[in-house]
Design goal:
The chain is of the alpha+beta class and 434 residues long. The protein contains 12 helices and 16 strands. The structure holds zinc ion (ZN).
Length: 434
């Protein structure tokens, strides 16, 4: 029982007083509830006047330097907020937006706020603790905050009672909204539309689609962006498609639409062609791979290695000669002038040889690396002798990327270019044709 009777003079020896105690407690209860109500009313009055009664300034705003009660637009963050709304309106899910923000290496709100030395949860943020990746919760918060439309929203939550610290989310109808209290970052119309999308719940459904073995390896030949998987659940005939990300998210490129099953077939056919060729004409294939990796061949490698050894030997010899010159000078066989001249000559030669040796070392390392990748690719192809099904493992092992063109009608026929870039050897469409 909560018993506040600070000002009451309760005399426990007085039986009359004791009789009154329960009654007094009830009065106190009323009193506390009344104070709580009065505090709330005061807060509501402040909220009604548009004063920001919460301590936190939402990401996108900062406190005005002239009047800390006022918020002004933090242009850098505001631009990110606008971009997030744009992506959301474009049909991206919260998770996709979070991934996109991380991919673009945009500072997370926490990291951004840190620049202003802002505090959160009562302690200074430590830059090292801040996650680099955007959390989808941040995206949801940004889409939900009506403050971005320029208004102040108070009383989203309220304490259950003056006796309980727990707060509950209030229904939207009870929120106190004071309009036009700060400059809007998102116009009203856009905010309302985003809100409707959120209410309709079309983003709440989480479907996990099989994006196919080639997902992540596909690139647009026009803008260079990745192609993204789009499911087509209503069309049972095929299992989805890929489209240029720049088209999907910004409408800035053409569709580059390609059906997943069509693409899988094309790629599988070509993979089988390459592996079959490698088996049937192994020597020719090895030569082709060597040519593709532009390896300078065994002879050049041996020549470089010989030259490097010779250079190394000459450097050692010069070291010995210089030592002898010092000795001769000490003994007096060599004049100071002659010593300086000879030393200078040998040192120049040393520098020249050192530079040349360094170049040779790089060339040798590159050659060996190329030899290795050629051998590695041949080994990989041998590993997958008879590919009957395209799996993500096979695709990722053999293929670096696939560049997809825009489909065109040529003489009434649908044509679309698909270039497969293999790991280590690149494009082999000219070498392997049939
Ligand atoms: Zn594109």
């Amino acid at each position: 029982m909560r018993f506040i009777a600070v000002y009451d003079n309760v005399d426990s020896t007085n039986t009359a007083d004791n009789d009154f105690t329960p009654f007094r407690n009830i009065i106190n209860e009323w009193y506390c509830r009344d104070i709580s109500k009065k505090v709330k009313a005061g807060m509501r009055a402040r909220a009604n006047s548009g004063e920001h009664i919460t301590g936190n300034v939402p990401y996108g705003y900062k406190r005005s330097e002239d009047d800390p009660k006022k918020w002004v637009v933090d242009e850098e963050a505001a631009e990110v907020v606008r971009e997030i709304y744009k992506l959301y309106m474009g049909g991206m899910t919260f998770k996709q937006i979070a991934e996109e923000m991380s991919r673009r290496k945009i500072d997370t709100p926490a990291k951004h706020m840190m620049q202003f030395g802002l505090y959160r949860y009562g302690r200074r943020l430590n830059l090292d603790e801040l996650p680099e990746l955007w959390h989808l919760g941040s995206i949801i918060m940004i889409i939900d905050r009506y403050e971005y439309a320029g208004h102040t929203v108070s009383y989203r939550r309220e304490k259950v009672s003056y006796k309980n610290k727990k707060s509950i989310q209030l229904p939207e109808s009870e929120w106190i909204i004071t309009r036009d209290t700060q400059e809007a970052i998102i116009d009203e119309e856009t905010w309302q539309t985003a809100h409707r999308i959120r209410e309709s719940g079309r983003h709440r459904k989480v479907n996990v689609y099989d994006k196919g073995p080639l997902n992540g390896l596909l690139y647009c030949d026009t803008c260079g962006n990745k192609l993204y998987f789009k499911p087509t659940p209503r069309l049972k005939s095929h299992s989805g498609c890929y489209m240029c990300g720049y088209h999907l998210h910004y409408n800035l490129c053409s569709t580059h639409y390609i059906r997943r099953d069509d693409l899988d077939t094309v790629v599988l056919t070509h993979l089988r062609k390459v592996t079959a060729f490698a088996q049937k004409h192994e020597d020719e294939f090895v030569k082709m791979v060597e040519r593709k990796t532009r390896r300078s061949g065994e002879d050049a490698l041996r020549k470089n290695e010989k030259e490097l050894a010779e250079g190394q030997a000459r450097l050692n010899e010069i070291d010995r000669i210089i030592n002898r010159l010092y000795e001769d000078k000490v003994v007096g066989d060599l004049s100071a002038e002659r010593f300086a001249k000879m030393l200078d000559g040998f040192e120049t030669e040393q520098t020249k040889i050192r530079t040349h040796c360094e170049q040779l070392r790089i060339a040798i390392a590159e050659d060996k690396e190329k030899t290795d990748s050629a051998e590695r690719f041949i080994k990989l192809v041998r590993q997958f002798t008879d590919i009957t099904e395209l799996t993500p493992e096979i695709a990722a092992t053999l293929i670096e990327k696939i560049i997809v063109g825009q489909a065109e009608k040529v003489d009434g026929q649908q044509r679309q270019e698909v270039r497969i870039i293999y790991n280590f050897i690149g494009d082999v469409s000219e070498e392997i044709t049939e």
